[in-house]
Design a protein that fits this description.
Blueprint lengths: L14 H18 L5 H17 L2 H12 L3 H16 L15
């Protein structure tokens, strides 16, 4: 059974950074010998499987391998960049005022 073509483009979505982060967790754990609790291991496996379903195989592998190779400093820098983008509120225009409103 073939899976349907993914509708998500890794470059234009938040999936690539997420897959890179998952790869970083796996890679750093392997290199340091640290193991995550079973709950977190299961979450990573579930999120990885979801990413694999949504992305093309080459996109997923490239993102996973990139994150897997990160040093702790690179992973922290990527997380800080991601959080900065996500935490900056979107600028919006003020609502138009009605006549008589101050």
């Amino acid at each position: 059974m073939t899976r349907p073509r993914p509708v998500v483009n890794c470059v234009r979505s938040a999936l690539c950074p997420a897959v890179m982060a998952l790869g970083a967790v796996a890679g750093l754990g392997e290199r340091t010998g640290d193991t995550l609790p079973p709950f977190h291991q299961r979450l990573i496996a579930e999120r990885s499987a979801a990413g694999q379903r949504l992305l093309l195989k080459d996109e997923w592998q490239a993102a996973w391998q990139k994150g897997h190779a990160w040093t702790p400093a690179q992973a922290a820098e990527a997380a800080e960049r991601w959080l900065a983008v996500k935490l900056i509120p979107q600028q919006s225009s003020p609502a138009p005022r009605r006549p008589g409103q101050a």
